[in-house]
């Protein structure tokens, strides 16, 4: 039997949470989506400040009123829940303090942004059922609800909130996910931009409490300029745009051009260091990417939604920009046909609450229809699988009749079509259609439920009475039992969780200090409490630019590295064991590796005579390194700081990529060296496109670094050992000395080899470089000239495209390569009795295939550069390695090998044994809360194993 109480509608946004009941015209409650904790300890703060009682956890309005005394946390970022514990505190505050209801057995409609991760949706449903015991849950996409609130079933929703802006096309009530765009610029970015602009005028409003003040200034004074140049001239020559604003402390400030300059970042995201198209460009791209039959209906129904769409002038500026884009890109500049282009932008006055209004309409329609909701019984039986149901059952799909596999069919009387969704064979489809006479097969995206859509529109025009103002007692016992339901006394945080009650020295015995880098110090430790084995513990420094996460002392770089490492698991990537948070310090525990490539290279440089690294060892190191890179890149991770010091090797010869402090997800916008990430890749391993100021980069920057490492394994010294200009290395991407070192070996890049070279911001600086001297290399052709025909027949289209570029580099890079490997042959001739002789001979056996791999990795044009997957298929790794020389032996050669015959033990067959990494015996630093990385007397110098010049990043 259906619950007679009206369903609850909860619209959670990054900036504000709106909640109310089905059929209401406005939210019952609206408050900031923030959670605050006191900055001072309980014994240091008063119990009452200006009438506000400071509690251990404060949410919403309470936290906003006392934010000067609180450490503020935002549970949602860019529309997606990131901090689930804080989100649950916010929901507790919503249901028990604001609404004062008993949620058990009631229905709730939740909203989610487009492209919300499935795991988030599952966890949201899980909390609603298992923590609050709701009887029914429905999750709806915010953009569709905004359209329903406007009485439409097709259109484009431009939903701009506090954390993210989405552009979502909807056709016949179905979201076109493949056309949905996400812009990571919204209201919070406009506020930050306004703070920066006011700072230029001399108003320092950068305290935590000032953020709310600036937000209010933004909402009262800011507008979107229709003619940017005109407004700039007005602000420079007159004072007509200047407005006054009284701050809470009584001061009066004057705001002029900042009024329109702050929201301009919505149209020009680069103003806030976001490398994405603006909102108008994204909107145009979205509609133009749709089928030509539906574009007209989309242009005529552009609906603005969200608080950041409330700026005066935004609709007219959007229309102007769209018409200009249509004129230049479709009409090719012919204004005579522009009159036929029809654009309609809907800007309803209540668009701040559009999503809630649509949810209230939909919840009212579904209130008595039990089949539309995921029930608690279904969740108990099927669990997270029902997380798909809100999408498959959107507006009337009968989920209970879903066929096994990936076939979804509609038998409900409101559904006039059958939709077959992927993975179904043609005979199955035909049989399904035969069983459903009168139905016709359509695509998943065009399935429509018309009667429900009509009901939604009728409900909007009828304006039913508001929902109940529930007077149900909240019950302290209920709230306490709900909170305790999610407190697992046996949960110790898992491998990746923060363990605030655990001390590092209780779990690990620190042996000593290993090394120091830009972001922290690394220590060697032995496990206690059943944690057998050796470990490396990284203690983070605060961010070098002072950027910390909400006064926690945790740097942004630490947060990023923790997030990435917790998701990665591969034999050739250093394994993350756990993360411990202690006294506002972050400790990341990793598996321990006894060696690194820098130390191995250093060992070979100290032998007399100098001994080359044997060819089988080089092959194994490169193969494992490329395997790790392929794994990272296939998971959308750029390492951005590959170098020998960051490539670890275990005692069993397993190569592992470490130190992901600079790593980023490259499906997110990445900044160039002009803004944001000032240092990308240590200078000797930095790709030419970075040195030339490229505003965008790809995994090709990692592959250039891999090529530099390969060359260093061969020559035992960096191939491009330039000097960094210390005065401008943080702000100027072009490092002349480093680029000159590349040109000395590779030759000058040309437009023929690199078509996009002239578009590089620092292209003109190439004219200041000296080309390498011309030379003849005919002596090499007689020995290895056959390599130049390589390019086809190996299944790698890449090599064919870079064939001409390789030919262009034979006079420079090829000469360097053969001079390098032949120099060891020459040195071994005078010391044939030594082990160096065997090492040199085996290195020479790399031959032409070694050069081809090196040339493919050190390709100027990043689009022609080998990818990790292509490099792994290179003949270099399938070439015979039988000539191992007297310094190697082949016992158990197949015991630990990859499918291609390359050993996963790079030490296999070696008679030599590499010294382990040096560990200083002073470990006091990790036991104190002092700033890690500070210089203290008595700390042994680690310069032998890790020269200061090489450890310094960037």
UniProtKB/TrEMBL annotation:
Which ranges are annotated Basic residues under compositional bias? 774-801
Gene Ontology terms, cellular component aspect?
cytoskeleton; nucleus
Pfam families xref list: Actin, Pkinase
**Where is the Protein kinase domain positioned along the sequence?**
508-877
Reaction catalysis annotation: L-seryl-[protein] + ATP = O-phospho-L-seryl-[protein] + ADP + H(+); [DNA-directed RNA polymerase] + ATP = phospho-[DNA-directed RNA polymerase] + ADP + H(+); L-threonyl-[protein] + ATP = O-phospho-L-threonyl-[protein] + ADP + H(+)
Q: Which GO terms describe its molecular function?
A: actin binding; ATP binding; cyclin-dependent protein serine/threonine kinase activity; metal ion binding; RNA polymerase II CTD heptapeptide repeat kinase activity
Under Enzyme Commission nomenclature, its number is 2.7.11.22, 2.7.11.23
Q: Which GO terms describe its biological process?
A: Arp2/3 complex-mediated actin nucleation
Presence of the UniProt keyword RNA-binding in the record? no
Q: What ranges does the record give for the region Disordered, renumbered to this chain? A: 458-493, 770-804, 914-954
Entries under InterPro entries matching the protein: Actin, Actin/actin-like_CS, ATPase_NBD, Kinase-like_dom_sf, Prot_kinase_dom, Ser/Thr_kinase_AS
- Where does it localize? Cytoplasm, Cytoskeleton; Nucleus
Q: Which cofactors must be present for this protein to function?
A: Mg(2+)
Classification via CDD domains: ASKHA_NBD_Arp2, STKc_CDK8_like
Report the enzyme's class at the first EC level. Answer: transferase
Q: Which UniProt keywords apply?
A: Actin-binding, Activator, ATP-binding, Cytoplasm, Cytoskeleton, Kinase, Magnesium, Metal-binding, Nucleotide-binding, Nucleus, Repressor, Serine/threonine-protein kinase, Transcription, Transcription regulation, Transferase
Location, primary (coarse class): cytoplasm
Q: Which domain of life is it from?
A: Eukaryota
The family annotation for this protein states: Belongs to the actin family. ARP2 subfamily.
Q: Which PANTHER family match?
A: ACTIN
Q: What is this protein called?
A: Serine/threonine-protein kinase SSN3
């Amino acid at each position: 039997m259906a619950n007679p109480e009206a369903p609850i509608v909860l619209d959670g946004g990054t900036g504000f949470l709106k909640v109310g009941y089905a059929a209401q015209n406005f939210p019952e409650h609206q408050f900031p989506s923030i959670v605050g904790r006191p900055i001072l300890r309980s014994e240091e703060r008063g119990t009452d400040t200006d009438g506000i009682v400071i509690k251990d956890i404060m949410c919403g309005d309470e936290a906003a009123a006392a934010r000067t005394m609180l450490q503020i946390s935002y549970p949602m970022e860019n529309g997606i829940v990131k901090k689930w514990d804080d989100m649950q505190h916010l929901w507790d505050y919503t249901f028990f303090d604001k609404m004062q209801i008993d949620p058990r057995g009631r229905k709730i409609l939740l909203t989610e942004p487009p492209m919300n991760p499935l795991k988030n949706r599952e966890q949201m449903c899980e909390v609603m059922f298992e923590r609050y015991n709701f009887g029914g849950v429905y999750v709806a996409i915010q953009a569709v609800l905004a359209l329903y609130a406007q009485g439409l079933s097709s259109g484009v929703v431009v939903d701009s909130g506090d954390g993210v802006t989405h552009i979502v096309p909807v056709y016949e009530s179905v979201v076109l996910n493949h056309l949905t765009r996400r812009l990571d610029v919204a209201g919070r970015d406009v506020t930050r931009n306004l703070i920066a602009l006011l700072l230029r005028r001399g108003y320092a409003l950068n305290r935590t409490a000032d953020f709310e003040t600036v937000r209010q200034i933004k909402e009262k004074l800011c507008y979107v300029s229709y003619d940017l140049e005109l407004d700039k001239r007005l602000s420079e020559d007159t004072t007509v745009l200047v407005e006054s604003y009284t701050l809470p402390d009584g001061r009066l400030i004057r705001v002029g051009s900042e009024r329109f300059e702050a929201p301009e970042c919505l149209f020009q995201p680069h103003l806030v260091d976001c490398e994405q198209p603006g909102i108008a460009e994204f909107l145009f791209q979205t509609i133009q990417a749709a089928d030509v039959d539906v574009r007209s209906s989309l242009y005529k129904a552009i609906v603005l939604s969200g608080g950041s769409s409330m700026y005066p002038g935004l609709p007219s500026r959007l229309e102007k920009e769209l018409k200009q884009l249509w004129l230049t890109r479709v009409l090719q500049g012919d204004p005579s046909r522009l009159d036929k282009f029809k654009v309609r932008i809907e800007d309803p006055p209540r668009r701040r609450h559009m999503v809630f209004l649509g949810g209230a309409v939909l919840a009212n329609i579904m209130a008595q229809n039990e089949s539309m909701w995921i029930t608690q019984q279904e969740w108990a039986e099927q669990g997270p699988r029902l997380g798909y149901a809100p999408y498959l059952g959107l507006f009337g799909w009968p989920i209970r009749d879903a066929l096994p596999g990936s076939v979804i069919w509609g038998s409900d009387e409101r559904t006039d079509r059958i939709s077959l969704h992927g993975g179904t064979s043609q005979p199955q489809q035909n049989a399904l259609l035969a069983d459903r006479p009168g139905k016709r097969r359509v695509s998943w995206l065009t399935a429509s439920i018309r009667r429900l859509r009509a009901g939604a529109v009728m409900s909007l025009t009828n304006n039913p009475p508001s929902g109940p103002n529930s007077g149900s007692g909240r019950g302290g016992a209920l709230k306490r039992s709900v909170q305790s339901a999610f407190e697992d006394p046996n949960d110790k945080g898992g491998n990746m969780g923060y363990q605030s009650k655990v001390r590092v020295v209780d779990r690990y015995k620190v042996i000593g200090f290993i090394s120091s880098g830009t972001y922290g110090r690394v220590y060697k430790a032995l496990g206690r409490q059943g944690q057998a084995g050796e470990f490396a513990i990284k203690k983070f420094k605060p961010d070098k630019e002072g950027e910390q996460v909400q006064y926690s002392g945790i740097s942004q770089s630490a947060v990023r590295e923790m997030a990435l490492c917790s998701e990665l698991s591969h034999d050739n990537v250093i394994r993350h064991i756990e993360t411990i948070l202690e006294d506002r310090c972050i400790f990341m525990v990793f598996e321990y590796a006894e060696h690194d490539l820098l130390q191995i290279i250093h060992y070979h440089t100290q032998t007399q005579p100098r001994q080359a690294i044997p060819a089988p060892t080089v092959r194994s190191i490169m193969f494992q390194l490329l395997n790790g890179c392929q794994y990272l890149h296939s998971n959308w991770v750029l390492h951005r700081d590959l170098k020998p010091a960051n490539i670890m090797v275990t005692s069993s010869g397993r190569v592992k990529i470490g130190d992901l402090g600079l790593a980023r997800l490259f499906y997110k916008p990445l900044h160039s060296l002009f803004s944001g990430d000032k240092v990308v890749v240590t200078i000797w391993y930095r790709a030419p496109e970075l040195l030339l100021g490229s505003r965008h980069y790809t995994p090709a920057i990692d592959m250039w670094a891999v090529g530099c490492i390969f060359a260093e394994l061969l020559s035992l010294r960096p191939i491009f050992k330039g000097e960094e200009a210390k005065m401008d290395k943080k702000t100027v991407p072009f490092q002349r000395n480093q680029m000159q070192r590349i040109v000395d070996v590779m030759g000058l890049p040309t437009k023929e080899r690199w078509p996009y070279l002239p578009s590089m911001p620092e292209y003109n600086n190439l004219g200041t470089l000296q080309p390498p001297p011309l030379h003849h290399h005919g002596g090499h052709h007689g020995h290895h000239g056959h390599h130049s025909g390589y390019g086809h027949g190996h299944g790698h289209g890449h090599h064919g495209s870079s064939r001409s570029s390789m030919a262009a580099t034979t006079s420079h890079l090829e000469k360097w390569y053969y001079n390098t490997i032949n120099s060891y042959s020459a040195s071994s001739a005078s010391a044939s009795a030594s082990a160096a002789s065997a090492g040199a001979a085996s290195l020479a056996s790399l031959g032409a295939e070694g050069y081809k791999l090196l040339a493919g990795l050190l390709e100027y044009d990043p689009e022609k550069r080998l990818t990790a997957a292509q490099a792994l298929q290179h003949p270099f790794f399938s070439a015979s390695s039988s000539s191992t020389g007297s310094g190697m032996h082949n016992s158990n050669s197949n015991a630990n090998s990859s499918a291609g015959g390359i050993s996963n033990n790079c030490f296999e067959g070696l008679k030599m044994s590499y010294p382990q990494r040096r560990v200083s015996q002073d470990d006091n630093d990790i036991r104190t809360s002092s700033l890690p990385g500070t210089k203290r007397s008595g700390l042994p110098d680690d310069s032998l194993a890790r020269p200061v010049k090489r450890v310094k990043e960037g």
